[in-house]
Amino acid sequence: MNKKILIADDDINIIASLKFVLADEGYDIVAVTTPQAALESLNMQSIDLILLDMNFQQDTTSGAEGVQLVEAISVLELNIPIIVMTGWATIDIAVEAMQAGAKDFIQKPWKNERMLSAIDNQLALAKSDKKAQRLSQQNQLLTSQAHPDSRAGIIAQSQTMQELLATLDDLAQSDMSILLTGDNGTGKSMLAAYVHSVSSRAKHSFVPVNMGAIPESLFESEMFGHVKGAFTDAKENRIGRFEMAEQGTLFLDELANIPFAQQAKLLHVLEAQQFEAVGSSKSLHADVRIISATNSDLLSDIKNNTFRQDLYYRLNTIELRVPSLRERMEDIPALAAHFLHAFSAKYHRACPQLTEHAIIAMQQYDWPGNIRELSHMMERVLFICKKDSIDTVDLRLTGAENNDVESLDDPTLSLDEIERKTLIKRLKFHRGNATETAKSLGLSRSGYYRRLSKYELD
């Protein structure tokens, strides 16, 4: 969008000259001839820079009206750069204007090169200041999370995860809204951050929001921001999450927890791509890419009138399900090792190794808490285990199918019984895939099928 400049000058010839020069440079112009009209314009629309005459009709030489207007604008705390102009330039007026809040000073008649250079500089500084403000509020409001910036940061050896990542790589090149579904703890937030990191918006902010953690009374303030004085506790301007994510990605986690009454407001912003901070009538542009996530059945929520159907279709240009950990057993050894190494480094402890029995037990476990549960388990076991290796008993798996694993150490088992149990476990691990099972056991396909027949497993 073009930058918008407000010109406040009582001389219509000056306004016409400035319009001619600035419009040619691609700026949108708003022109007023009185201080009151200038203040009204600032309250009604978003302005990027102000060119302000120091003298109006009441006083043509002292610059007092201009200084008063600069002070009035500064009180609004809009953080808009002001460049003042006067044909009666003195050092005193320049200093007074700067002290009141002006950023630069131009003498009439101006040189176009000097004026355009001043405008460019102030717009660049304002952009830098706004970015710093956004980062400051992000540091205060958002929990710091380590997110991958490439596939190398994601452990995904299983075919189902490889296929999902390939799809996300393609979608990252678009701006379409993505809805990630699946159980809690499956890594939806990590995948949302990954999409952002490989998209064209990667140089801008990735802003995650837990929708279930926002009180309904603060929803608009948190999402759209507020201006000073908008309500009792609004003691300063606040940037909302949409503005934080400008030109970047806004990740709406726990989507189904948005209060029904607030869903219409969110839908309006997504459709209009504009929003207003609480207490302000100025529309701000919402150039954000939306990724959302939920573990809820939104279609059932729609039937139960707890989620809007139109919002659902606005958010799921494409819907992707993130597999549960029990659906990607091939990834468990690498994930477990990753967490063990991470926690051993964090707590400065030696890193034990997982035994084969422990790995098989984890692959047979149902993992109701998914990757989050695996992470917590590895953190706990690092402190519980006092040996160089972690065995099944150290994992303390509840309800795990690990009896067969332990029974392999039973000295009463015959070689055939051990071989049969081992074959069953490998079949489970590879989900009945004959080629992978035979390969993992070092068997030829004919040797593998002979054993299936021998143990009546075919």
Automatic annotation (TrEMBL):
One GO BP: regulation of DNA-templated transcription
Database matches in PROSITE patterns: RESPONSE_REGULATORY, SIGMA54_INTERACT_3, SIGMA54_INTERACT_4
Residue ranges constituting the Response regulatory domain according to the UniProt record: 4-123
Alphabetized InterPro entries for the sequence: AAA+_ATPase (IPR003593), AAA_lid_NorR (IPR058031), CheY-like_superfamily (IPR011006), Homeodomain-like_sf (IPR009057), HTH_Fis (IPR002197), P-loop_NTPase (IPR027417), Sig_transdc_resp-reg_receiver (IPR001789), Sigma_54_int (IPR002078)
Positions where 4-aspartylphosphate occurs in the chain: 53
Domain Sigma-54 factor interaction: start-end pairs: 154-383
GO molecular function, one term: sequence-specific DNA binding
UniProt keyword terms in alphabetical order: ATP-binding, Nucleotide-binding, Phosphoprotein, Transcription, Transcription regulation
Signal peptide segment: none
Keyword rRNA processing among UniProt keywords: no
Keyword ATP-binding: yes
Pfam families in alphabetical order: AAA_lid_14, HTH_8, Response_reg, Sigma54_activat
Protein name: Two component, sigma54 specific, transcriptional regulator, Fis family
